[in-house]
Amino acid sequence: MWREALSALGKMQVVEMLGVMILPSMVVWNSAVSACARAGQWQRAFRLLGDLEGMSLEADVVTYSSVIKACDMSSQWRLALTLLGSLRRQDIRANLVTFNTTITACVSDYWDLAVHMLQDLVAQAMCPDPFSLTTALDACGVAEDWLLALTCMEGKIQATTACWNAMIKTAAGADGWTMGVHLLQQMPADQLQPNIMTLGSALKAAERASEWGMALLLAASIPQRRLRGNVITDNSLLSALSQASKWQAALHLLDSMAAQCQPDAVSYNTTITACTRATHSKHAMELLSSMEQRSLERSAISFNSAVRAFADGRWTSSLELLRLD
User: Fold this and answer.
1) Cα 233 from chain centre
2) Looking at 64, 86, 106, which one is the last position of a domain?
3) pLDDT at 98 over 90
4) Are both 250 and 294 inside the same structural domain?
5) pLDDT band at 15 (very low <50, low <70, confident <90, very high)
6) What are the C-alpha distances in Å from 76 to residues 99, 106, 182, 187?
């Protein structure tokens, strides 16, 4: 579509050269910029913005928002910030779309600026929407700063489940497992029901903090909430079981995973580690063999864990393992 849009603009310019004044309107021009933006053609979108200077047309907030969107899609966050500054210098009032797009562009590489953009949005008496808040919370997640995430949540709009999920995920990454569990428990007060992503993030937070007891409780609540577990929640539970030396429960969970989701290499490696801690070499060997049958990549982690299972002195079995693969 972007090629067709540029072609249409080109034809208008040819007609003008022949002496017939047919100038594109801002609607047509913005459509061309938007088409380039959707296709990720940020350089072409930026060039169209620059071409306006030689015409009797002035860029508006739609033009800038489209070019910033193209920058976001191409990870050109510096240019996105430059464009936002240019928009302000021309006394063009940015709208929510402009702010949201710029916040998104900054999340990965400039997380603190993304949070500042949210605060700036409020300072300009503009009401953030759930997308604004969730994106800023994702930025806090990149920084693993759950205290900053809490600040973003305070006094803003009615948070959605996606906002709470982003907040709990941030707490998990920053080892703030107690806050993650607390937020999970507080969701019903906001008339929100946790989904499997919510439980998965809280479970991951507890697992990372070696709070396997809480992890087991959270996992048990998944079917009680009529939610269906996935490989992410099951892997977190496997890790908690491994830490708790509950190797039999880990084996049982791995066997049952096939009924709802296919176990991956992480699932097997974690269960092998559980067997290793209990020096159950036979099960470790069987799991290693099962990985090969399922065409799962057996990494150095897989073999190292299995070798450690032979800590009871059967060094010849360890040598056999080293000859595999």
Assistant:
1) 16
2) 106
3) no
4) yes
5) very low
6) 15, 9, 37, 36
